[in-house]
Write a structure and sequence with these properties.
Order of helices and strands of chain A: EHEEEE
Number of helices of chain B: 3
Radius of gyration of chain A: 17 Å
Helix content of chain B: 10-25%
Structural class of chain A: mainly beta
Strand content of chain A: 35-45%
Shape of chain A: globular
Number of strands of chain B: 6
Order of helices and strands of chain B: EEHHHEEEE
Number of helices of chain A: 1
Largest sheet of chain B: 6 strands, mixed
Distance between the termini of chain B: 12 Å
Oligomer: heterodimer
Helix content of chain A: under 10%
Largest sheet of chain A: 5 strands, antiparallel
Strand content of chain B: 35-45%
Number of strands of chain A: 5
Radius of gyration of chain B: 17 Å
Structural class of chain B: alpha+beta
Largest interface: A-B, 37 and 45 residues
Amino acid sequence: MGAPVGSTGDEYEVVVERGKIAEFAAAMRSEDPAYAGPDAVVPPTFLASATLWRPASGQVSLGFDRKRLLHGEQEYVFHGPPPRAGQRLRAVDRVTERYSKPGRRGGEMSFAVVVTEFRDDDGRLVAEARGTFIERAARPATEGGGS
Amino acid sequence: MSGAPAAGIEVGTRPPARDIGPLTTRMFVRYAGASGDFNPIHYDDAMARSAGYPSVFAQGMLSAALLSGYAVEWLGADGVRRFAVRFREQVYPGDVLTCSGVVASVRATDEGTLVGVELQATVGERAAVTATAEFLLSG
């Protein structure tokens, strides 16, 4: 069984790096000057790369079978301008929802929502990432979106 | 700091659509490195086939990033306040993503004009990813 609602991983540090922003912008084929230079801001989905900073102890275990795991939705919220190069953030992952629905072809689909809060050194909430993960029903199903 | 000026932005405003691609496995590899998502199903054909897919396919988050780039080009990198994406269909090497968007809401706030948009990236008639986003614009 996976971690219940309210479970959190250990806090971890995320440093917003100028080179990483440039690499991410290149991967998204953006030449926006806002993503270059010492004051580069992060692209809207850049915080996906925060997992590179996350130790095993920072992760919440959903208990889902990796072979049936889908990423259904992903949201980023910025409580002000997006973070900039050089900023140090502290991140905590938390399970906020778990529920299940009947699969379209029988069985049960399980859903879990994991929210990562990113705070600055003063504890101010800078950004949130909200991922919805789905474990497909055990038997049938070869369809469905996600990655 | 907020994004681009809000002048000329109203509900129903649509920027020109933009095609991205054809996508390549190399782009998936590049995104894997940038994001840290090294699931081999996105760059190892044998692995993808053994999992029942015709070939490797793009990370859903790559399509999301490309769609976000389209939105940022339109509304400005500094202005983004929310970006929420739903993954719908796989995107394969050779596919061309067509990004489009429309303004769904415009609201004056103390800090500027908060613009809500609906976005989608399609392959032909299929929606690969859809998104909603909010950008804070000046004025």
